[in-house]
Design goal:
Blueprint: H1 2-22, E1 31-37, E2 41-50, E3 53-62, E4 65-77, E5 84-101, E6 104-122, E7 128-140, E8 145-157
Antiparallel strand pairs: 1-2, 1-8, 2-3, 3-4, 4-5, 5-6, 6-7, 7-8
Length: 158
């Protein structure tokens, strides 16, 4: 698990350092609102501030509670793949959980730091955007530890 984490961090830093200088095209949409799925479902809102820099806010609901995540994403282009972008970035979350984990009752408010690494595709001629990503996080508080999520998002762009 530690090797996967270190490899992921190294990959993110490499993409981030190369992507900032090479990405010259901004996104083909300004904002998008939709849903994101993984172990539950969430509401996702993404907005591009300038060029390839975006913020994404996700409110996840599942049988364990609620989690609100904010991510800062840097997008980059793929050569010869119109509409397809990669993205990487940091973030943070706050969660309100109440569940049983291996006969231990876990409840309360939890804070953590997040990262994201994913792909984003905007359909040409349609106001639809899809994404797939991996979102590792580390939580602080009563429950301390590394978690990782992934998600598939479908959004309406405007």
């Amino acid at each position: 698990m530690r090797k996967v984490f270190l490899l992921s961090v190294t990959l993110c830093l490499f993409i981030l350092s190369n992507g900032q200088s090479k990405s010259t095209h901004s996104s083909s949409y300004r904002s998008a609102l939709g849903v994101k799925f993984w172990d539950g479902a969430g509401i996702s809102f993404k907005h591009f501030f300038q060029g390839n820099n975006a913020g994404e806010f996700i409110g996840f609901f599942w049988n364990r509670g609620f989690r609100l995540t904010g991510l800062y994403e840097i997008h980059g282009n793929f050569a010869d793949a119109e509409g397809l972008k990669w993205y990487v970035g940091p973030g943070a979350h706050i969660g309100f959980y109440d569940y049983y984990d291996h006969n231990n009752h876990v409840d309360g408010t939890f804070f953590g730091i997040d990262g994201v690494l994913g792909l984003d595709y905007k359909f040409r001629g349609a106001p639809i955007n899809i994404s797939i990503d991996w979102q590792p996080s580390f939580e602080f508080g009563d429950y301390v530890g590394f978690e990782h999520y992934g998600g598939i998002g479908i959004r309406y762009t405007f």
